Amino acid sequence: MRDRSLTVRQEAILVKVVESFAATGQPVASKALAFDPQIASASSTIRNELALLEEYGLLAHPHTSAGRTPTEAGHRYVVDRLLAAPARSALDVPISLSPERRELDDALRVTTEALAEMTNLLAIASAPATPRATIHRVEVLTLPGGSVMVVVITSTGGVSKFLRAFDGSVDPGLVAWAAEYLNERLGGLPIGARMLAQRLAGDDGLGPRERAFIEQLAPAFGDLTGGGEDVLYVDGTARLLGAHRFVSREQVNELMALIEERVALVELLRRALAERGVFVRIGHENDVPGLQTLSIVASPYGDTQRKLGTVSVIGPVRMDYATAIASVQAVARQLSRFVEDIYSQP
After folding, report:
1. How confident is the model at residue 205 (pLDDT cuts 50, 70, 90)?
2. Domain spanning 8-81: which CATH class is it, in words?
3. DSSP string across 12-64
4. Count of C-beta atoms within a 10 Å radius of residue 86
5. Which end of the chain is more exposed for a tag (fewer CB within 10 A), N or C?
6. Domain boundaries for CATH 3.30.450.40 within the chain
7. CA 277, 130, 217 angle in degrees (round to 5)?
8. CATH 3.30.390 segments of the chain
């Protein structure tokens, strides 16, 4: 249907149905459209046009006596025209990103908070992956009461602590040996539970006492995270859920699972990063199962040399796409100016 040309009146009616449904969540009747000065047509004429738009697959008719609601194809038709229109440069962006901040991390937190407030949607910003961390140093310390603490320091400055309690006192010589052994065995290895566990389990030269002690300390390396993945900044979850725009509890659960797992979100935002302009995927246009009842609007930001990440909003298919697109565009422009400023300074 995307290639079908509508008449001016049909397009005006479709836009009004999409806008009204986004605002109220209720089907739109021909009588309500007849009072709109931008349509200025009799109810009988509007009913005929609504029937044609339904035939084209742009509108749906939930009940015999009810009005119409837009389909995903109807939303897409309107969104495509929004994307083809000039950007709303006059949109007010209530954030201040001065170069004095110097930290992209801080700017992205401020940005997602403001974007969520502007749109009442879930706002997400992505930042480049940090370098993959490695084991820099391992310290094994004896504590009072028969406990041993393992401190793992990564190459990116991360610090992780693990405490293991033992019955009775622990041989200081065994503790000193364990520190030396772990540094020799694991030093310089990338963070990764599987790799580290294999390295610890693969030494057949250990005696029973030493092996038993190392097995007690091995969980210290099981929950380490060391970067290598894009960083996501998320805001607006409570605001979105509080707007009561979800059809079912399943939609809410899918969105929450998507936020918690993050892997699918990172992949989707990487696709958005490859787009030249604003990236919009509506409902089943998303191949991510958790997003097929939702929509995403995203735009890349960066300096003149490269794109660094994306800013985006996610919400129900029934969203105000005009505001979402304009907000994401405006915030991405402001973030790009901020990045240019901080990277151009000596």
Report:
1. confident
2. mainly alpha
3. HHHHHHHHHHHHH-S-B-HHHHHT-TTT---HHHHHHHHHHHHHTTSEE-SST
4. 5
5. C
6. 103-129+230-344
7. 145
8. 135-221
From the DSSP assignment, how many helices (H) and strands (E) are in the chain? 12, 10
Residue with structure tokens 């990045």?
339
Per-residue burial over 241-276, b if 16 or more Cβ lie within 10 Å, else e, is eeeebbeeeebeebbeebbeeeebbbebbeebbeee
DSSP H/E element including 279: strand 279-282
Cα pseudo-dihedral 64, 69, 73, 79, rounded to 10 = 160
User: How many angstroms separate the Cα of 334 from the Cα of each of 42, 168, 196, 197, 327?
Assistant: 45, 60, 42, 45, 11
What fold does the segment set 135-221 form as a domain? Enolase-like; domain 1 (3.30.390)
Residue 140 is classified by DSSP as E
- The span from the CA of 269 to the CA of 309, in Å, is 8
**Distance from C-alpha of 4 to C-alpha of 24, rounded to nearest angstrom:** 28
Kindly tell me if the per-residue pLDDT of 100 is higher than 50. no
* Amino acid identity at 163: L
Nearest-angstrom CA–CA distance, 168 and 332:
59
- pTM equals 0.69
CATH code of the domain made up of 103-129+230-344: 3.30.450.40
Name the residue with higher pLDDT: 165 or 258.
165
Which is it for the CA torsion 290, 296, 301, 307, positive or negative?
positive
The span from the CA of 68 to the CA of 122, in Å, is: 27
Q: Are strands 147-154 and 135-143 parallel, antiparallel or unpaired?
A: antiparallel
Q: How many angstroms separate the first and last alpha carbons of the chain?
A: 53
Distance from C-alpha of 343 to C-alpha of 336, rounded to nearest angstrom: 11
Q: What share of the chain is helix, strand, coil (3-state, %, to 5)?
A: 50, 20, 35
